[in-house]
Amino acid sequence: MRVLRGLNSPARAPAAVTIGNFDGMHRGHQALLRQLKAEAGSRGLQPSVLTFAPHPREFFARKLAGRNAPVVPARLHTLREKLEALAAAGVAETRICAFNEAFAALSPEDFVKQVLVDAMQAKHVLIGDDFRFGARRAGDFALLKSLGEKYGFTVSALDSQCLADERISSSQVRAALSVGDLQQAEGLLGYPYAMEGRVIQGRQLGRTIGVPTANVQIRHNPLPLRGVFVVEVALDETKLAVPQQTRSYPGVANLGYRPTLGGDTRPLLEVHLFDFTGDLYGAHLDVRFLAKLRDEMTFANFEALTSQIRDDLAKARSFFESQPV
Predict the structure, then answer these.
(1) What CA dihedral angle connects 4, 9, 15 and 19, to 10 degrees?
(2) % pLDDT > 90, the chain
(3) What angle do CA 14, 17, 21 make, to 5 degrees?
(4) Could you give the CA distance from residue 96 to residue 228 in angstroms, rounded to a whole number?
(5) Greatest C-alpha distance within the chain
(6) Structure pTM?
(7) What gap in Å lies between CA 197 and CA 195, rounded to an integer?
(8) To 10 degrees, what angle do helices 170-178 and 182-189 make?
(9) CATH classification for the domain delimited by 2-167, as one of 3.90.1110.10, 3.40.50.620, 1.10.10.10, 3.40.50.20
(10) Residue 75: CB partners within 8 Å, gap ≥ 6?
(11) Cα separations (Å) of 13 from 2, 34, 44, 48?
(12) Angstrom distance (rounded) from CA 196 to CA 186
């Protein structure tokens, strides 16, 4: 997949375009991308995506700081994770536009002319049924269709995807994760929620109690979930001199700020893999959250924390033993 930033680089070919933040890549996003790929194929166009950084709500939260600012949404996917998901869905070209003051001020027609037509060579535009565009979200489906007739592209919309009669959205996924309902989150996403990152040097306190942990560098802030979890970890063992092999290990993870150990200013994902021996430094881990064991807690001392960790490990092993083979 080709990735472009801004509007200066021209598209490689005429395109079928869809637009969105695609945070979390839930079932609704997946349906939209399947439809995009089908419509691009039938029209002889390249399937292309327009997305934004930062999330528009992040931009407005910073702009209105201290004045009833909207809450910054927890980021479900990093930009890297989002791009990997778009590539896996068959997108040929993704354009990332900086959502800033100038971009937010574009009129609906300027957005269409400068972004969709001039930069992206849009010949067909597929949108979700809640899509709005341009300054103050003034543009809607009817206006986009009218502008398409003016600038030479067609427009179609995909109805919302639902689960149990509720519209699937990134906000729903965030709500499920925030209360530790991983089963609901998986139903909305179509797969277990996961984070990925590189293993970095830590304090190595886990080794002193026989529970070594991999400290995974993450860039999800604010966090969509916190606590102690049963996890399954996909490990690319090409980093460990085992060529072209990826294995999954059961384990336990703590995601948060480690209040008992003095607290961290940035969130940290600590993972203990069952039945694994070896050096993980520099390896890339994909950590899939299967069940929540408890919230992150503050303990009176390191001994109390150690006792709780051993209890967490026992509960996690019981979880895996109870799963059907």
Answers:
(1) 50
(2) 61
(3) 145
(4) 34
(5) 71
(6) 0.87
(7) 7
(8) 160
(9) 3.40.50.620
(10) 23, 55, 219, 220, 221, 222, 224
(11) 12, 20, 10, 10
(12) 17
Helix (H) or strand (E) holding 273: strand 268-273
What are 177-208's pLDDT values in tens digits? 999 999 999 999 999 999 999 898 866 666 66
Q: Are 129 and 160 in contact (CB under 8 A)?
A: yes
Q: What is the Cα–Cα distance from 18 to 7, expressed in whole angstroms?
A: 16
Domain coordinates of the chain in residue numbers?
2-167, 193-321
Give the Cα separation of 180 and 23 in Å (integer).
18
Phi-psi region of 154 (alpha: psi -120 to 50; beta: other; left: phi over 0): beta
Pairing state of beta strands 93-98 and 162-163? unpaired
| CATH class label, 193-321 | mainly beta
Report yes or no: 21 and 51 within 8 Å, Cβ to Cβ: yes
Location of structure tokens 């010949």: 123
